[in-house]
Amino acid sequence: MSSLPEKIIRPEILGLSAYHVPPAKGMTKLDAMENPYSLPASLREEITRIVADVPINRYPDPFAIELKDTLRTALSIPSGMDILLGNGSDEIIQIILLATTKPGAKLLTVEPGFAMFKMIALFANIEYLGIPLRSDFSLDLDAILATIRHEQPAVIFLAYPNNPSGNLFDAEALEAIIKASPGLVVVDEAYHPFAGKSFLEKLADYPNLLVMRTLSKLGLAGLRLGLVAGRREWLSNLEKLRLPYNIGVITQLVAAKVMQHYDILEQQAGTIKQARARLSTSLAAMTGIEVFPSDANFILFRIGNASQIFESLKQRGILIKNLDNSHPLLKNCLRVTVGTHDENALFCKTLHDLINHN
Ligand SMILES: *Cc1c(COP(=O)(O)O)cnc(C)c1O
């Protein structure tokens, strides 16, 4: 006999295990691509005053006009292009897939890639196609183009740089995909602050392209704000699925204030990029570690007994991400977020000790 929820809830939802977020209290947290730095005291004081005066009894501006203006300027959104805001870019992925799911519609992406593409495809009930990357995590362009011809996907999502591998895909290959696609192509630039390269300027060239950004990796993960930029023909339709007050009043006001000081976040991203280079060199110097090149604020590396190393690090108070067994190409792979100088040094020292005592 099955219980009522088991009869009513969709079987593919019953089959899911809840998204696992490991407890991190008191740990050195290098698992979630967060910016480790806080804002200058003067800016935090300004935020305190803004929050004190927030009319939380009122609904927020449903169109977030001021925030959108600030974002357009700070992120240099090309004129003539619209933007749509989401409660994190995860919500934008959901909006896009809810708008495009219909019988026979398919989503194409690459694996290993961002886990939420597959997860939200399942929520939205759109068929999922995950094309394997090559072993160096580059695009298998022939396989992708063949699948596009054969399956005619309604939507393609590609993260640029990719998560969890950290690399930027070849821009020409990406353009070939956009040109070959019969549907929408969304370039997810969550790690743009650490990469420099962008498809934003290509929006004018390709009518089937959207570019997605988030403030999460930049230093505002707690506010939950993402955006997608593109032509009005797309965004006016996606707007219809956006729930009226999806961006809360505190997020609107605080994000606008911080983005007026975008130079501070850019400077922090610059510091993180320098630390990434040092961390990468330190890891590569350790015996038995293969380090993959990164254009993001994290580093993927391969090490013997990865799962055991991950557990030992955790016991010593350092939380990174274990990707061993998550995909055949990620055998024995771990992902570490670039932290502060001290956090990176502690991580390296602890890892070095673990390797030498095994
Ligand atoms: C972290 C991440 C996101 C999600 O960002 P939010 O705005 O916090 O929802 C989107 N895409 C990729 C590739 C990411 O790694």
Automatic annotation (TrEMBL):
Residue spans making up a coiled coil are none
Q: Which Pfam families match?
A: Aminotran_1_2
Q: Give the UniProt keywords, A-Z.
A: Amino-acid biosynthesis, Aminotransferase, Histidine biosynthesis, Pyridoxal phosphate, Transferase
Q: Which GO terms describe its molecular function?
A: histidinol-phosphate transaminase activity; pyridoxal phosphate binding
Broad class of enzyme this protein falls into: transferase
What sequence ranges are listed for the domain Aminotransferase class I/classII large?
A: 27-349
Gene3D superfamilies the UniProt entry points to:
Aspartate Aminotransferase, domain 1, Type I PLP-dependent aspartate aminotransferase-like (Major domain)
Q: Which reaction does it catalyse?
A: L-histidinol phosphate + 2-oxoglutarate = 3-(imidazol-4-yl)-2-oxopropyl phosphate + L-glutamate
Please give the biological process terms from Gene Ontology that the record holds.
L-histidine biosynthetic process
The protein's Enzyme Commission number: 2.6.1.9
Known pathway: Amino-acid biosynthesis; L-histidine biosynthesis; L-histidine from 5-phospho-alpha-D-ribose 1-diphosphate: step 7/9
Answer yes or no on keyword Transferase.
Answer: yes
Q: Which cofactor names does the annotation list?
A: pyridoxal 5'-phosphate
Where are the N6-(pyridoxal phosphate)lysine residues found in this chain?
A: K217
Task: Provide the family line.
Answer: Belongs to the class-II pyridoxal-phosphate-dependent aminotransferase family. Histidinol-phosphate aminotransferase subfamily.
**HAMAP family documented for this protein:** HisC_aminotrans_2
Report quaternary structure and partners: Homodimer.
Q: What is this protein called?
A: Histidinol-phosphate aminotransferase
UniProt source species: Nitrosomonas halophila
